[in-house]
Amino acid sequence: MEPEARTQPANPPQLACILIVVLGMTLFAGGCATWIRGSELAREYYNIGNAYYDLGRFERAADYYQRALSLDRSLTPAGYNLARVYLREQRYAEAQDVLQQLLARDPDNLVLRETLAYAYYLAGDIDRATVMYEEILALSPYSVNALYNLARIAEEQDDAEAAIDYYRDAVAVSDNDAELLYRYGRLLAARGDSDRAVAVLERFLAARPTDSAQLVEAGDILRRERYFLQARQAYEAVRTEAEVYPQALFGKAATYLLGVQDAEEGLPLLEQAFDRGFSDADAVRELLQSPGLAGADAVRTLIEERGILQGGDGDGDGDGDGDGDNGGSGGDPR
Q1: Residues 48-105: tens digit of each pLDDT
Q2: 3 state DSSP class of 214
């Protein structure tokens, strides 16, 4: 998640007005050097750059940020946003150069430090990113972004214990961050720390998360730990248009068939999951083999009719494309 350091952006109608004003100011400036100071024109160029940035026209945004900086090198927000454009365009070396220049003038600016660390990470320079995040923690021990990103890096380096420690410290500072709680909970579950995983994932649900893929995975973990009510809460929060929705339907069906032994509620949900393309054969086998399965004969008949256990193992959610959210095992540091 990128830090935000821009002023209120201009919308498209405002962009036209700004361009007209700047054009007039430039014409007057050409005839009378005292009519407008360079710093004032730089600020107008910066505002135009912001407007283009919000329109997704990043090349034009970069052009106006550069114009602003050519008139006023001390306009830090223009340099910062230019670096953000470079990061979007994967011009990592240029982004790092801009951010290093800004830090030379403002070495205690944590936003600049966080963004430079992120630029190092994106460029694959994990060692420099780690050092930078550790420096941020030395300056600000309660920096949630630094703790979160160090945890992510530790996970990628298969250092689960270090990652858990970073996540724990981050949660102690920010206990309502859904993304943070999700990643902490799923890591605890993967390490077999079921009690803590469930407690953290309950807090994740209380944070009202919106990422469908994360909700499904949290639901699956809670269901396997037999916390059926909490699992159902996770599945019910999944958007119906999400690509993982069939998986949510299957999970919700399982909470009824296993949790309260209610085949009357569970079977229609299971059928809906298959209608929406759910075809994870491993999950289906696990369901069939679960003790206390309500309506076991009817469930088995439905599965046989749909041919779920024929011709391969399926892909887990019926389409294999993922959810489009930044959940699951993906997502970038922030």
Answers
A1: 999 999 999 999 999 999 999 999 999 999 999 999 999 999 999 999 999 999 999 9
A2: helix
Q: Which token pair is 247?
A: 């998986």
Q: Are 191 and 221 in contact (CB under 8 A)?
A: no
- Residues 254-275, buried b or exposed e (16+ Cβ, 10 A)? bbbbbbeeebeebbebbebbbe
Six token digits for residue 56: 């997704």
- Cα gap 8→95, rounded to integer Å: 23
Q: What is the pLDDT of residues 198-232, one digit of tens each?
A: 999 999 999 999 999 999 999 999 999 999 999 99
Distances (CA, A) of 247 to 192, 233, 236, 238: 23, 14, 11, 10
Q: What is the DSSP string of 245-305?
A: HHHHHHHHHHIIIIIS--HHHHHHHHHHHHHTT---HHHHHHHHTSTT-TTHHHHHHHHHH
pTM, entire model: 0.79
Q: Where are the alpha helices (DSSP H) in 177-244?
A: 178-190, 194-206, 212-224, 228-236
Which residues are within 8 A (CB) of 128 and not within 5 positions of it... i.e. 6 or more apart?
117, 120
Contact 218, 234 (CB under 8 A): yes
Q: What sign does the dihedral 206-209-215-221 (CA atoms) show?
A: negative
Q: Say which DSSP state 327 is in.
A: -
The span from the CA of 294 to the CA of 301, in Å, is 13
